[in-house]
């Protein structure tokens, strides 16, 4: 009983103490595990230390899919966090649910923060925006697929990193095979060989302006000759021993590159931090994703991948003000540069990019700049991004069919017919959820 | 025969209430909810929804992919159930006759029972690792280019092996205690009648083990259908890709990964009906042939 009294007194004291400081507490649910999670925690600590009015608590919620599902469940129960991290493939779901989030652009301007979308680098700007170009989600960990290569292996084979796929298949790959390497592996077929294939070659990915104009009537345009020719070439490379596929898992395809068996690996610009820390037994570098000269003579920028932060609706004004303050802190050049250096994700604002440049970051590590340079290449009408509902399942369908192509269970033609059919069914179903 | 019973009707009802309440809250209520959701297509955040009637079901019926997954689930369930029961029975019969160090053997054989499914899956992942897994090496040594996560059949094989490995100890415990409850006099009588050990096993021991076997059959089918989820999720590393999956995993993939609540609700209703049919079938047809002592 005595203990009880003490704890009541302590609780009462704690409450008055809180009131005295008048701090606003907000929560941030994210999907950044391991070293990335530590960097997230550091950013939150720095924000908390930088002022006395707000306190942010980051909470790790598992994988991207798990974080989104947890956020949705919490929203339905009225227990949503202030900030939810949502990945690229989930963007249509959360942006489609108007009323679930507050567009960051409105949040920032309503709370007196300066906001100019043109301060963001061009490849990042519109991916999480609506069809009018209003930013809905704050780009957070943004990356783009780039080509990493084993410098020693390429030297040994007497070739340079290929600029085009034509060069790869006629010069680079045969020479690397001769030198005892598997030339190529990649870690994410839907992201690298589909979504960014469309962007790099400026091909439309879906009707309704890649889906930005609304879910109603949006159809995927994946079944085209350019991409079918690409996958046919990939199966040829596989037969000739130029390309190997190690399954749908990301790491299974990265490991052979790290082991020095595969000379060129297509991964994320965000993989740079991890690769640098691994102390690989060879020198590695990175460059742009190759393109097909037969498809385009003017290759364009790529899409961003990764995730963005959404301000959840249903919170009071004081908490929204705190969220806005955190977003302001997050987009400061210093914060972005820190995040960029630690993780390899691109800095999302031009100012942060300039700061990294001025500091000599890219003189020390030229490969760290590839992602942002590629995102800043000329834009085309099909390069701002895509917005498709149930896109997680559409990616699953792609992964399944691509896996079947690469294990010889199906033909390129049948696979793309299937993807088109199933993706359009999913898009039509999604459109019905939105009414 | 006179049966013991309650004199009033309200007392048994009162005693049943807590149990019924639990069943209602944790089973019937969600089941009704799933049934209702299966007729709608709804926005995951709960803003919009469209009544689509039976569309979620007709979509399933027309999906060749769903049919493939169903077929795989049936084959997977049969293989896991058969091998789990057969291996456990073999081990139990052998362990039953061991006299020296019996406790140690039995403990070692039951050991794996304590492993949680995701952990079992993770161990499987290590054993079948593409580049250095010991079981991958063994497969390659006999000329099988085993590739977990790449080749459909190889991944399916790994799923069956890990699921069986995880389930054998449970069956082993039940079979062993079943064997030990067979009266010694019966065994001795059988020994006089029949000199062949396998003959005695099939004619005497096996029928006497039937009640245990029937119970285990139900438990194992349920295990293969539902509880292997953690193993499958770990072995495919959360990425379904072109890997095999079971119906339950598909419900998760569509509902929790993809946020398609209507579609995955329809799938759970299909599973509910399946389990119901299975249970009725088992009790009606199989249990009649089994004699409890």
TrEMBL record, chain A:
UniProt subcellular location: Periplasm
Keyword set, alphabetical order: Periplasm, Signal, Transport
Keyword Transport: yes
Major place of residence: periplasm
Source organism superkingdom: Bacteria
An annotated GO cellular component: periplasmic space
UniProt xrefs under InterPro entries: Bact_solute-bd_prot1, SBP, SBP_1_CS
Pfam families listed in its UniProt record: SBP_bac_8
Subunit description: The complex is composed of two ATP-binding proteins (UgpC), two transmembrane proteins (UgpA and UgpE) and a solute-binding protein (UgpB).
Family from the record: Belongs to the bacterial solute-binding protein 1 family.
Role this protein plays: Part of the ABC transporter complex UgpBAEC involved in sn-glycerol-3-phosphate (G3P) import. Binds G3P.
Identification of the protein by name: sn-glycerol-3-phosphate-binding periplasmic protein UgpB
Species of provenance: Thalassovita gelatinovora (Thalassobius gelatinovorus)
Gene from which this protein is expressed: ugpB
From TrEMBL, chain B:
Record keywords, A-Z: Cell inner membrane, Cell membrane, Membrane, Transmembrane, Transmembrane helix, Transport
Entry's Gene Ontology BP terms: transmembrane transport
Domain ABC transmembrane type-1, chain residue ranges per copy: 74-282
Transmembrane segments: 12-31, 72-93, 105-128, 156-179, 200-226, 266-286
Membrane topology annotation: Multi-pass membrane protein
GO cellular component: plasma membrane
InterPro entries assigned: MetI-like (IPR000515), MetI-like_sf (IPR035906), UgpAE/MalFG_permease (IPR050809)
Subcellular location(s) of the protein: Cell inner membrane; Cell membrane
Primary location recorded for the protein, binned into one broad class: membrane
Pfam families from the UniProt entry: BPD_transp_1 (PF00528)
SUPFAM superfamilies: MetI-like (SSF161098)
Function according to Swiss-Prot or TrEMBL: Part of the ABC transporter complex UgpBAEC involved in sn-glycerol-3-phosphate (G3P) import. Probably responsible for the translocation of the substrate across the membrane.
Quaternary data: The complex is composed of two ATP-binding proteins (UgpC), two transmembrane proteins (UgpA and UgpE) and a solute-binding protein (UgpB).
Similarity annotation: Belongs to the binding-protein-dependent transport system permease family.
Protein name: sn-glycerol-3-phosphate transport system permease protein UgpA
Name of the encoding gene: ugpA
